[in-house]
Amino acid sequence: MAANPMSQFDVYRIGPEIKVGAFDISFTNASLFMILSTVSILLIFNLGSKKNSILPNKIQLLAELSYTFVSKMISDTAGSKAKPYFAFIFSLFMFVLFCNMFGMIPYTFTVTSHIIVTFVLAAFIFIGVTVIGFFKHGFGYLKLFVPSGVPAVLLPLIVVIEIISYLSRPISLSVRLFANMMAGHTMMKVFGGFVISLGIVGGWLPLSFSVALTGLEILVAFLQAYVFAILTCIYLNDALNLHH
Amino acid sequence: MVKKIYFQSIFFSFFFIKEAFAAESGGMPQLNPEFWVSQIFWLVLTFGIMYLVLSKLILPKISNNLESRKSQILENIEAAEKQREDSDAKLKEYDEIISKSKLEANNIFNQAREKALKDIGAKREVLDKQIDNEISEAEKEIDVLRKNAPDKINKIAIETSSELLQKLIGAEVNNSSISAIVDDLSKRNGDKYYGN
How confident is the prediction along chain A (244 residues), in pLDDT tens digits per residue? Predict the structure, then answer.
């Protein structure tokens, strides 16, 4: 079982089966790591915002640097109109980042390596952004699909392409994160399996790969959280500041 | 040879692992919908709670902290600026006082010098007058002496020549005849002897 690189993505029940109607909402290892991530985020940021000293301590600095990092990212990509959505994007970034990072600890479960989790996040963002867009611009939001400066002959084709690209946003957003996480963890598991099966004689090569991959995956974990958040900002920017 | 066996063993074990994985893997667990509802439920729950706590409690606090620090730093900078301006003003005042007192000192010095020069001038005038007087008196005396000198010299010449004649000749000589000769000589050679 342990040799299968996909078995690390297995979801299993912890505790009894909980059913609401026809739906199984049992507490699973995925739920455990979601709770772990959110609790650590809340803990860190609560500690980081408790005391307000002029010279911040390490945890306060961490909280404030994250705050300014995300706020700068939002203002750079979506402008000042996106300020009301700061808390959501901040939560999103932190949640994805912490889930990714928790997945880097051996024997843990990576919440974001499941397409259903990333898809729910992406679908929520997609629906939210679309609602915001229609709310702000009315049916004028449909102008998003009609780029300016396109010859009339090409317009039908362009509009179709634009609509398809818009509708595929939640899929690309969710699959990007999920696939990155899954691929990285699978690869690490495969190399880890090589280390065991090649033993003391030949295991050093895959072990060194594994070590290098760990560094790479930590980078990817951060990068994918960042990409997820910044793409959300870009979609939000489309909805808030209609340029076309 | 050993090297060859080593690399062969590595190569074959790669093969076996692949075989083992191929046999075991039964697709992706992600596509098994058994726990999808559970995952969605727990995601919405945890993310929702985290979002609420972050947005209502924690993020406003962090933003407050940042704002207050910013404003405090700005205040401090302002205070520093103000103090700098104050010190600049004081420096200016000091400079003014210094230049004023320098001017005053210069004035006092000039006045004193003028007064001293005046005093010296007055004293010098008095002294000059005295010296002039003395010089003129002395000149007068010299004039008187010079005027009287030829007569006295003539007299002495007459007396000496009469005495000489008496001793040489042994007879009284008329003083008047001698004086006539002396007068004649002194008139002829007066310029040589008494001329200035």
Answer: 456 778 888 888 888 888 888 888 889 999 999 999 999 999 999 998 888 777 888 899 999 999 999 999 999 998 888 889 999 999 999 999 999 999 999 889 999 999 999 999 999 999 999 999 999 888 888 888 888 888 888 888 999 999 999 999 999 999 999 999 999 999 998 888 888 888 888 888 889 999 999 999 999 999 999 999 999 999 999 899 887 5
CA torsion A76-A81-A84-A87 (nearest 10°) is -10
At A24, phi and psi to the nearest 5?
-95, 110
Q: For residue A55, with 0-12 CB atoms within 10 Å meaning exposed, 13-18 middle and 19 or more buried, which class applies?
A: exposed
Range 26-65 of A in CB contact (< 8 A) with B: 26-28, 30-31, 34-35, 37-38, 41-42, 45-46, 48-50, 52, 54, 60, 63-64
Q: What ipTM goes with this model?
A: 0.90
User: Does residue B22 carry a pLDDT above 50?
Assistant: no
Is-contact A203 A196, C-beta < 8 A?
yes
Q: Name A14's Cβ contacts closer than 8 Å, sequence gap at least 6.
A: A26, A27, A28, A29, A31, A32
Look at A95 and B55 and tell me if their CB atoms are within 8 Å: no
A143 within 8 A of A162, measured Cβ to Cβ = no
Chain B contact for A107, CB < 8 A?
A: no
**3-state SS record for A37-50:** HHHHHHHHHHHHHH
Best mutation target among A10, A45, A191 (most B Cβ atoms within 10 Å) is A45
Could you tell me the two tokens for B178? 């001698």
Amino acid at residue number B135: I
Distance (Å, whole) CA B70 – CA B59: 16
| CA-wise closest residue to A102 among A30, A21, A170 | A30
Residue A96 near residue A222 (C-beta atoms within 8 A): no
**Backbone conformation region of residue A15, classed left if phi is above 0, alpha if psi is from -120 to 50, else beta:** left
Say if the Cβ atoms of B41 and A23 lie within 8 Å: yes
Could you give the 3-state DSSP secondary structure of residue B173? coil
